[in-house]
Design goal:
This protein is mainly alpha-helical. The chain contains 3 helices and no strands.
Amino acid sequence: MSISIRVNENLYNQAKIQAKAELRTVPNQIEYWARVGHTAIDNPDLPIDMVEKLLIAKREANQSFEFID
């Protein structure tokens, strides 16, 4: 389910630039920033780059792999 929200135009433009660089949609970029921020708030002792690496590792752990012989 998706819900429309209003965001500041500056935030949208920053997300648009970052989303293009990281091959995400603008909404997915904003969701990613929200997850990073939420995780950083829940773990204030961790550096932000560690938070990002943990989220990447968690996402990769949830992906299935198909081995080709």
